Amino acid sequence: MSHMVIFNGTEGQPRYHQADTLEDAVKFAEHLRNAEDLDNTKIYKLSEVVFEFRPYFRVEVGAAADEASEAESSEPGSVEVEEVVADLEDLEDVKPEEKAEEKPAELEQAKDRTEQSSESDRAESPKSSRIFSRS
User: Which of 5, 22, 82, 101 is deepest in the core (most CB within 10 A)?
Assistant: First the structure.
C-alpha cells in the first residue's frame, strides 16, 4: 500500500512525496527532519477509491424550444391546453354511470369539432382539400 508524505518546503509551499511502503515514508520523514530541518511533516496511508464513469442525460430548454412550441400551438387544428383542462374539469363531477351514458354524445361533439377544423383547414389550404376530395 502506498503512503504519501506531505510537508512544507523551505519556501513554505506544500510538497508531496509518495512512498511504496510505510518504512520508505518514515525514512523520508526522518531525512526531512535530520537533513533539511523540516519538522512539519505528515504521513498518510493511500488506498484506492473504486469508482466508475456513468453517462447521464440532461435536458435543457432554451429560447429556441419555447419559440418552436409557440409556433406549433398556433398552427391550424392545434388544441389549446386550457380547452383540454376545461373539458377534464367538466368530467370530474360526473359519476362513472353518467360518463358511460354521455359517451356517444361526447363522441358526436368530438366528430363535429373534427369536421369543423377540417373544413377550416380546407378553406385555408386549397391543396389539402384537393387531396382529401379525391380519396
Answer: 5
